[in-house]
Amino acid sequence: MGSNKTKTTQLNRGLKARHMTMIALGGSIGTGLFLASGGAIASAGPGGALLAYAAVGILVYFLMTSLGELATYMPDSGSFETYASRFVDPSLGFAMGWNFWYNWAITIAAELSAATLIIKYWFPDSSSLLWSVLFLALILGLNLLSVKGYGESEYWFATIKVAVVIIFLAVGVLMIFGIIGGEAVGFKNFTIGDVPFHGGFFAFLGVFMAAGFSFQGTEMVGVAAGESDNPREHVPRAIRQVFWRILIFYILAIFVISLLIPYTNPNLLKDGIESIGVSPFTLVFEKAGLAFAASVMNAVILSSVLSAGNSGMYASSRVLYSLAKRGKAPKFLARLSRRGLPVNALLLTTLVGMTAFLASLFGDGLVYTWLLNASGMCGFITWLGIAISHYRFRRAYIAQGRDLNDLPYKAKWFPFGPIFAFVLCIVVILGQNLSAFTGGQIDWYGVVVSYISVPLFLVIWLGYKWIKRTKVVPLQECELEPPARK
Q1: Whole-angstrom Cα distance, residue 53 to residue 59?
Q2: Sorted alphabetically, which Pfam families does this protein's record hold (predicted)?
Q3: Nearest to 246 by CA among 238, 256, 236, 235
Q4: What CA–CA distances, in Å, run from 35 to 9, 267, 283, 318?
Q5: DSSP state of 432
Q6: How far apart are alpha carbons 93 and 78 in whole angstroms?
Q7: Is the pTM of this model over 0.85?
Q8: pLDDT digits 0-9 by tens, 214-243
């Protein structure tokens, strides 16, 4: 009995370097690139879309280096909750943990709803409930298998997406020069109408918000660090590679789409999950004469949403387990299986994912939109917490007389990086739905849908602070000793 217990007091550390890179990469290449990029070009023009995605790319770079410094020094599956509790205030850690869990648990439900919409491209009269059950069982099965099972499935999901983007870029470049498709397009689509910038500042701001959603998921590497077999080497490598790959994939893909499809093309505005036939990737492939493009992109987008659901299940269950371990969630959620998996946390998260089944009762599109709106802001709140935690960690590290050269990974540009990320995240959060306040009359429905996560987060944070009487941890008292890795 004793040996069994020692086996199961720690999460299983089965993630390799390649898993770590693909977890962070797979989390951020998905429907934001395959679908929303078209709407971004139509709204703000090619120049506006490129600038918005580049700006968010820089924001994500600073967040990832901040997270990299924290996760290599203190690898922990609680990640954001642990760092905020130790370096800022236990009440902020409590709110961050529950916010992150809620965000990704709801994202599972949203991705399952999306998957049922996508599968109806091939089977229009099939049951939403049936597909939801099948996809949820698949995601739960992959997560119950082992941490390596999750890492391996995520590796292959991400590999499919990366391969499609690379093929797309190659085909696109050949079309630009007229090697495929007959005519050399050149830069003519950058000179029509009022491009490269179109729609003014508010259009740009709207695309900037959408780009922020597209990049959410990169922070997964912080949670995965707790189950990496060598976080001090794997996390910095994953972060360095991910930033350049994301920037190259997103910026180059949008550039290629902008050159090949004029921003005035009405199909670019159809970027809903049910409009696979008019994904900008599909439009480019069809223009190149690849007739099967829509079916291929449909399969890739299906793998994308399943990958996002898979990652959501993994990350949210780990943070829930971490909350339980620290007494911030019910104790039964801290139990591990013999294989070092937080089974109870996985099952509770699955129950929340089952809200996707409502899709079959209330109409797929409506539920999907509501679930997505409910969780949308939570990711930006997580980013805000990462920036604050890193700023406080570095200040505490210096205040306690430690040598920065001893850090296994040191974020460059401190303190500019976390301050820049903090300010930009505040702008994104406040500007979420400015159009609801313009036009003479306030759109209260729009305000509630867009901003509901902010008061919820504040209630959890300040409520815990009031009940537990927590205080901001003085820099000299921040707990800098990393937990022992058995």
Answers
A1: 10
A2: AA_permease
A3: 238
A4: 42, 11, 11, 29
A5: T
A6: 10
A7: yes
A8: 888 888 888 888 778 888 888 888 887 777
Backbone angles phi, psi at 142, to 5 degrees: -60, -35
Contact 353, 137 (CB under 8 A): no
Nearest-Å Rg of the Cα atoms of the chain is: 22
Judge contact between 206 and 35, C-beta under 8 A.
no
Distance CA 76, CA 461 (A): 21
Give Cβ neighbours of residue 134 (< 8 Å, ≥ 6 apart).
none
Cα 240 to the center of its chain, rounded Å: 17
3-state secondary structure of 270: coil
pLDDT digits 0-9 by tens, 295-312: 888 888 888 888 888 888
3-state SS class at 15 = strand
Spatial separation of the C-alpha atoms in residues 285 and 289, rounded to whole Å: 7
**In 326-363, which ranges are continuous DSSP H helix?**
343-353, 359-362
What residue type is 420 in one-letter code?
F
Alpha carbon dihedral 77, 80, 85, 87, in 10-degree steps, equals 110
State the sign of the Cα–Cα–Cα–Cα dihedral 295, 371, 156, 20.
Answer: positive
pLDDT tens, residue by residue, 177-223: 888 877 777 778 878 877 788 888 878 888 887 788 788 888 888 88
Higher-confidence residue of 226 and 324: namely: 324
* β partners of residue 228: 15
Distance separating the N- and C-terminal Cα atoms of the chain: 19
